[in-house]
Amino acid sequence: MVDEITAHAIHDEASLRGHFGATSPLAVAKAHTRLDRNDRAFIARTPFLTIGTQGADGRADVSPRGDPPGFVKVLDDATIAIPDRPGNNRLDTMTNILANPAVGLLFMVPGFDDTLRINGRARLTTAPSLLATMAMRGRTPTLAIVVAIDEIFLHCAKAFRRSKLWDPASRQDRSELPSLTAIIMEQTEGQKPDEARIAEADERLEAAYVERLY
Questions:
Q1: SS3 for 13-78, per residue?
Q2: Count of CB atoms within 10 A of residue 206's CB?
Q3: How far is 88 from 90, CA to CA, in rounded Å?
Q4: Which InterPro entries does the record match to this protein (predicted)?
């Protein structure tokens, strides 16, 4: 199959577009550069987004961000800010932004099959007045990601309709796979850990969720 994939690889935009019909005028026209009332309302309802970045070496990364609805601050019609909460301190998103400010954001609202996309240029800030507005449970984030908007548009519902993401009937039982800690331990140690170590690691992770969520 690998040989077949290579033989049928697409290498240029003209070849790519030859496999598809013309872009609809509405798909082009819907993109705009400043937040309107509908964009603001969507962002205000959003509890979860993903942010795509790329480092100086060309390696891409996508990272989730989540908080209660309204956690993304609209600073003006062309600027938004996202708090950075405690994590694993890999800092992939932030180091990428320092090397390459181009970012892509995907905003998701539970129950909404359509999504909001924003492409822009990001920078990092520790501005005290901004961070104070982002405090949760008495804890202020270390920094915020501020995005200057280049392009905004709504994305249609096809992907969510196909995946049935919000359909309760499509929910899967997490217990059918090993826990997060069990998987990571197996991947890093090269063998399945014993159940006692897994239980201990799971307990530590749950405690960290409580203590270091904010």
A1: HHHHHCCCCCCCHHHHHCCECCCCHHHHHHHHHCCEEEEEEECCCCCEEEEEEECCCCCCEEEECC
A2: 11
A3: 6
A4: Pyridox_Oxase_FMN-dep, Pyridox_Oxase_N, Split_barrel_FMN-bd
What is the structure's pLDDT at 199?
A: 94
Are 40 and 30 contacting, i.e. CB atoms less than 8 angstroms apart? Answer: no
Residues 6 or more apart whose CB falls under 8 angstroms from that of 106 comprise 49, 50, 52, 115, 116, 117, 155
Instruction: Please compute, for residue 205, the number of CA atoms within 13 A of its CA located in the half-sphere on the CB side.
Output: 13
User: In this predicted model, what pLDDT tens digit does every residue of 67-123 receive, in sequence order?
Assistant: 999 999 999 999 999 999 999 999 999 999 999 999 999 999 999 999 999 999 999
| Mean pLDDT within 163-173 | 96
- Domains, the chain, in order of start with CATH, read 26-163 (2.30.110.10), 172-211 (no CATH)
Mean pLDDT to the nearest integer, 178-199? 94
Percent of the chain exceeding pLDDT 70 equals 100
Do the strands 143-155 and 115-125 form a parallel or antiparallel pair, or are they unpaired?
antiparallel
Bridge partners of residue 108, in order along the sequence: 48
- Residue showing tokens 């804890």: 139
Helix 180-189 × helix 195-211 angle, to 10°: 120
